[in-house]
Every structure is written in structure tokens, then in C-alpha cells.
Amino acid sequence: MDKSTLRQRARNLRKNSTDTERHLWYPLRADRLGFKFKRQVPIGGYIVDFVCLEKRLVIELDGQLSTGLNLSK
Asked: Where do the domains of the chain lie?
């Protein structure tokens, strides 16, 4: 997949995030944890769910597992 296609797909994923992604995004965004995170970012030929570039940390949610998570606890 070329870069422009990946970027467009990442934009679409940000617009149509899952409930689990939205719940996890709240504490990650706006430096609430002291680090800057981005969501749905193209890296290489992949689109990762969340990334902290400073710490070189990628968070990927597995659709099958993430549907059962209760992040409100």
C-alpha cells in the first residue's frame, strides 16, 4: 500500500474508532500520562492503534479481545 493510501485509511480509522479505542484514547490523549500519544498512525506498511514516539511504544488492540474489555473499572 502506498503512503497516501495508508494516510487516508488511518484518517478513516480515526473517524470510525471502536468503543474500546475511544475509552483507551481518553487517558492517553493530551499528555494525561505525561507522554504524547497519537492514534491510528501509519508506520512502515502498517497502521498502529496508538503510538508514543518518544518512548518508541506501540499499543495494538486485538479486536476479538478488546470487545470484552471493560475499561471503566
From this structure: 3-66
Backbone phi, psi, residue 46, to 5°: -120, 160
- pLDDT tens per residue across span 47-72: 999 999 999 999 999 865 444 445 55
Closest alpha carbon to 38 in 59, 19, 20? 59
The C-alpha cell that represents 68 in the structure block: 470484552
Spatial contact of 17 and 40, defined as CB atoms under 8 Å apart: yes
Angle at alpha carbon of residue 34, lines to 46 and 53, rounded to 5°: 25
- DSSP structure class, residue 30: G
Measured in whole angstroms, the distance separating CA 15 from the mean position of its chain's CA atoms is 12
- Please check whether residue 7 is in contact with residue 42, taking contact to mean a CB–CB distance below 8 angstroms: yes
Indicate the pTM of the whole model.
0.75
Question: In terms of residues, how long is the chain?
Answer: 73
